[in-house]
Design a protein that fits this description.
Layout lengths: L22 H9 L4 H26 L8 H12 L9 H12 L7 H19 L8 H16 L1 E2 L1 H23 L2 H20 L2 H9 L1 H21 L5 H31 L9 H5 L8 H8 L3 E2 L9 H27 L4 H15 L3 H11 L12 H27 L2 H9 L4 H16 L1 H14 L11 H10 L8 H29 L5
Antiparallel strand pairs: 1-2
Helix pairs in contact: 4-14, 4-21, 5-6, 6-7, 7-8, 8-11, 9-10, 10-11, 14-15, 14-17, 14-20, 14-21, 15-17, 16-17, 17-19, 17-20, 20-22
Amino acid sequence: MSDLSYVRTEILPEKDPPVTEVGIIGWMRQNLFDGWFNATLTIVSVAVLYSIISAMLPWFLHGVWNAGSLNECRSIIKAEYGPDATGACWGVIKERGSQLMYGFYPRELRWRIDLSFLLMLAALAPVLFSNLPRKMLWFSAVYPFIGYWLLWGGSVWGPIMVLAGVVLAAVAFSVLLRVSSALVAVIAAIFVPILWWTFSFTDISMSLQSLASVPGLAANGIGILAAVAVFVSLRNRVDIAASLALSVALFAAWWALVSPILTFRITILMGQQLSTIGGLEFLAGAAKGESTLVGLIHSAIPLSIEPVESSKFGGFTLSVTVGLTGIVASLPIGILLALGRQADMFIVKRLSIGFIEFIRGVPLITLLFVAHLLLNYFMPPGTHFALLLRVIIMVTLFASAYLAEVIRGGLASLPKGQYEAADALGLDYWKSMRLIILPQALKVSIPGIVQTFIGLFKDTTLVYIIGLMDPLGLLQAIRADENWNGIIWELYGFIGAVFFLFCFAMSRYSMYLERKLQTGHR
């Protein structure tokens, strides 16, 4: 029998890992000093950071908050820290900080901006975090109209009429989807609110005068002929209901958008004095005359707050208004454009492709100049189309084109079996997109979508070039003041820090959402 005394019969007790493998020392060995090259880069980086911090830290610590001018600030720094000392003049932030935040918004009405911002956070909460009650989404859907009314003021019936148009679009889509094709339902959902807004915000007496005039009859006659031509050309290619819906939609768009402009041009050629505004009254946000439907309701039930002109918007209020409106509005438009680019319908596909490629091929600043200089040339006199509204529309269209390509990449990444599974379940196109395809495509597209949003928010600084007083525009105005002439880093640092906070918050939320939804293919 062999001797087995060298075989251990009991389990050794656990020992603590080496000190060099755990804790801060282990982390540093693994991340900072993992090899000679990594260690060299770490030492060089520490030296560079030390030189930067050692130069900037005294500038921050010697900052002055109570100075009323740059010269006063420098004299205080020299008196307290020596003749060769340098420091930040934070007094400009203390004196002009409210202007950088609110622009030229009336001081006594700035509570409306604060309230709209708090309500915006409450409206975004159920959208961003799924653990909140889903009934809060009703407030999220209504908030854009509440926020608009709080910021711009005026009669409450204007936003209510706009909201009613959205409700009518949803009702028309759901009803026609049950009794007709999806194409007819989509067309109705687009043009029913246009007709409603045109009816609600058009000067009734002026519209009747326009329709009864020779130029009005000529302009609308052209629209009728075009609608009939479309119906005749499509009746043998698609079903009668779809061709009729397309014809009616074409005439509605012509009557609401093109006919007022054409009527005005013909009137000028005839030497008559007729100012026709038609459906453009809604786009301008005017609709203040008592002869409009909104004006008649307001005269009967006056509910309004003090109106504020768009020219009063400025600073971060302007940037947040343009940025968040563009972000919220561009996502659904981008989804529709991505679906339209992959659609089987020739017209829808070509229009989507043309729009996306045109917008992506033109710089944003060019579109802003178009909104600033050219758009009013196509509008009749008396139409007040605020520059801020034009900028929001252009920024939204610009972002939607880029989002469409991001979402199309997400759609293309899905295997063909997902589409076949939706067909096997008997789902129609819209249900398959809503329940199966789009949720997966949007999860894959989260990084690209958030990157587009961050770029859009930073691009709002371009509005300074066309005359809107965003933070950079106000910065130049502040520096033009003789009290603060020559100050640079404090203002740029403050503006950069605020933009960084917004963009960093969006980036961190993107990472949170990716972890929660577990994006990635397994």
